[in-house]
Amino acid sequence: MHPRLFARQCGAALVILLLETAATGAYSLQNEDTLMLSWARAVVAGVVLTAPAQSYAQALRKSDPDWPCQQIKTSAFSLASVWSGPDIDLSSQAWRNEPDVVDLATKMSQRRVPIEDVEKAISELKAKKGAEADAKLLEAFGAAFQELTQQRAQILVGLDRFGRKQRALADRIRAENEVVQKAADDNKNEDGQPDDAAVQRLQWDLRVYDDRRQTIRYVCESPGLVEQRIGAVARAVQQALR
């Protein structure tokens, strides 16, 4: 592959890798020349100069090197952040013996169930259970809160695992880039073209790295969507308790 073509295809991905790994402290920008192919530097430098300053600032604010999302990582989600009603015993398992509470809690915790259907189920339980309804609503919401926060925690674990894999791939890309650069410096032909096999490995890994980075953006929204679901259910229950 001709160097200029390779530079056009890989330049942006190399810039992304440089910015992200700089934010983790994996290397110093002062050593940038050792991390890029000599014949791609001009292209990469051009992209760096036009990269949005805001994106770079956001990268520098990332405190967890394995966290792959632009969103700030919040490990725990507090009930107090969405609930101002009566006390709820989150450790209670009594609701498991009440089929009507189990059914309502299931509707609350399944995100594919529209919130309008949850509100309807709450109204139906209030109408059927009378004086017992408020206690059952609190039990159902407590169970749903536990289930949804567990879902959220599992998503965070998956994102952390993805981030570790992405970091390992970034380390491999840097090593491959050094090999290609050294080969280009030591064994130039008249076009300054390095070994094709090494270039292809580097190009493939850069493509995988960038494809993963694009895909994970959607998954990164999931913790926030779970939080929104919890908030919507909390508001529906508190409205019914009035």
Straight-line distance between termini: 70 Å
Structural class: mainly alpha
Give the count of helical stretches.
8
Helix fraction? 55-70%
Low-confidence parts? 1-16, 18-61
Percent strand: under 5%
List the helices and strands and how they pair.
Layout: H1 3-24, H2 41-50, H3 53-61, H4 99-109, H5 115-129, H6 133-186, H7 196-220, H8 222-241
Structural overview:
By secondary structure, this protein is an all-alpha fold. It has helices spanning 3-24, 41-50, 53-61, 99-109, 115-129, 133-186, 196-220, 222-241.
Can you tag this structure with a few keywords?
disordered N terminus, 0% strand, single chain, 242 residues, mainly alpha
In short:
By secondary structure, this protein is an all-alpha fold.
